[in-house]
């Protein structure tokens, strides 16, 4: 038995689940997924977002959205440590890998449970097992239309203090202005979690800005998760991405279709 528990938000779960699927393929065993519904992280089910790849044998959804969710997850972690012969959460997983452990051999050995939000095993190509539901891909196509000269711009704000500090709006503006000099007809697909940033960029760049009109920015809302999926896969359709420092969203979007990613970082640019 190989059980995997994806942790974190959408992109953290995608990259960690990508690793788990790669291990199940290498070990020749099926994968059982425990999908947690967490406040401020994930409010929708895996099967509502993606077509389920054949490597996944079973999905068990556990709801921790209530006020006791954090306590319930702590109890579940303790139970998992007792239930499985090998149970590796983040620190245990890092120690096992750094110590030269082989996760494929461990998966073959019997009862294994891993919980992670990180990419912990190499998969090539990345995310080949992730196919969004048709309704999501239809929205992406509707956003892009026939435009083929589009650069993705991901501006992470909200509570991500490092992205705000190291990838300021002014740095995005100067980079986008350089792109306009290179190609007069360029458009920008803008993905952001800030309505103020959205208004600011539209005021500056007018009809060069392409956006998906979100219905919600509240991560506890199922609609917000699906909106994020549309933004993610629209970014992946761009010819390249200008992204925010420290954001898994920028990184995963570029890896989906192996496109160029430029992370804006004023500390790197100043050095």
Structure, briefly:
The protein is of the alpha/beta class and 271 residues long.
Q: How would you characterize this protein structure?
A:
- It is a single chain.
- The protein is of the alpha/beta class and 271 residues long.
- It folds into two domains: 2-116, Rossmann fold (3-Layer(aba) Sandwich), CATH 3.40.50; 133-270, Rossmann fold (3-Layer(aba) Sandwich).
- The chain has helices spanning 10-27, 46-49, 69-83, 90-98, 103-108, 134-144, 161-166, 169-182, 195-205, 222-237, 248-256, 266-270, and strands at residues 2-6, 31-37, 50-51, 56-63, 86-88, 112-116, 131-132, 150-155, 187-192, 209-210, 240-244, 260-264.
- The strands form three sheets. The protein has a five-stranded parallel beta sheet, with helices on both faces.
- Helix 6 (134-144) crosses helix 10 and helix 10 packs across helix 11.
- The chain starts with a strand and ends with a helix.
- The model has no long low-confidence stretch (mean pLDDT 93).
How are the elements arranged and paired?
Layout: E1 2-6, H1 10-27, E2 31-37, H2 46-49, E3 50-51, E4 56-63, H3 69-83, E5 86-88, H4 90-98, H5 103-108, E6 112-116, E7 131-132, H6 134-144, E8 150-155, H7 161-166, H8 169-182, E9 187-192, H9 195-205, E10 209-210, H10 222-237, E11 240-244, H11 248-256, E12 260-264, H12 266-270
Parallel strand pairs: 1-2, 1-6, 2-4, 5-6, 8-9, 8-11, 9-10, 11-12
Antiparallel strand pairs: 3-7
Highlighted features:
271 residues, alpha/beta, Rossmann fold, five-stranded parallel sheet, 12 helices
What is the 3D form? elongated
Structural class: alpha/beta
CATH class category name of the largest domain: Alpha Beta
What does the radius of gyration come to? 20 Å
Tell me the domain tally.
Answer: 2
Strand-residue fraction?
15-25%
By DSSP, the count of extended strands is 12
Instruction: Give the N-to-C terminal Cα separation.
Output: 49 Å
Helix content: 40-55%
Output the number of helix runs: 12
Mean pLDDT: 93
Low-confidence stretches: none
| CATH topology (level 3) name of the largest domain | Rossmann fold
**Annotated CATH architecture of the largest domain:** 3-Layer(aba) Sandwich
């Amino acid at each position: 038995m190989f059980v995997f528990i994806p942790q974190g938000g959408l992109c953290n779960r995608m990259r960690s689940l990508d690793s788990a699927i790669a291990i199940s393929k290498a070990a020749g065993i099926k994968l059982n997924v425990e999908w947690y519904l967490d406040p401020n992280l994930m409010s929708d089910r895996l099967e509502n977002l993606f077509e389920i790849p054949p490597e996944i044998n079973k999905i068990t959804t556990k709801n921790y959205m209530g006020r006791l969710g954090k306590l319930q997850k702590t109890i579940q972690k303790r139970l998992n440590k007792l239930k499985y012969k090998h149970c590796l959460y983040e620190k245990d997983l890092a120690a096992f890998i750094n110590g030269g452990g082989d996760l494929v051999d461990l998966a073959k050995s019997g009862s294994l449970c891993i919980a992670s939000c990180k990419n912990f095993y190499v998969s090539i190509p990345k995310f080949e097992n992730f196919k969004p539901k048709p309704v999501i891909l239809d929205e992406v196509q509707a956003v892009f239309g026939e435009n083929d000269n589009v650069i993705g711009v991901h501006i992470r704000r909200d509570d991500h203090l490092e992205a705000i500090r190291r990838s300021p709006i002014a740095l995005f503006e100067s980079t986008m202005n350089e792109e306009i000099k290179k190609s007069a007809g360029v458009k920008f697909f803008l993905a952001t979690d800030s309505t103020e940033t959205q208004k600011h960029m539209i005021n500056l760049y007018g009809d060069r800005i392409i956006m998906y009109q979100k219905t919600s920015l509240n991560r506890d809302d199922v609609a917000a998760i699906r909106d994020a999926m549309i933004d993610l896969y629209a970014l992946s359709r761009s010819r390249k991405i200008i992204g925010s420092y420290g954001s898994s969203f920028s990184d995963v979007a570029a890896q989906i279709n192996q496109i160029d990613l430029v992370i804006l970082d004023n500390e790197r640019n100043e050095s």
